[in-house]
Design a protein that fits this description.
Radius of gyration: 20 Å
Structural class: alpha+beta
Oligomer: single chain
Number of strands: 4
Order of helices and strands: HEEEEH
Strand content: 15-25%
Number of helices: 2
Shape: flat
Distance between the termini: 48 Å
């Protein structure tokens, strides 16, 4: 197997796996709050306590994956462009 064919096969495999992840689980953990929905702070004694709600995920802890967002956008454009 040539290196170019191996690279193409590897990229295709990774892409298909990501498509499967986006189809089975369209929402992933928020990268800013790690899925908690809020930031963790420490008080003056060093104990952890709850901070402010995460603005990026609106305190849900979940965000839509990039691949699913692209699929939703393409489906919306296709739906708007077709005539019934």
């Amino acid at each position: 197997m040539t290196p170019a064919l191996l690279t193409i096969t590897l990229i295709l495999g990774v892409t298909l796996c990501y498509i499967a992840v986006c189809a089975s689980s369209p929402f992933g953990n928020c990268r800013k709050c790690s899925g908690w929905g809020f930031a963790m702070r420490t008080d003056r004694k060093g104990r952890l306590k709850r901070g402010k709600d995460c603005r990026r995920c609106r305190a849900t802890g979940k965000r839509i994956r990039v691949g699913r967002w692209l699929y939703n956008r393409a489906a919306r454009i296709h739906r708007a462009g077709t005539v019934d």
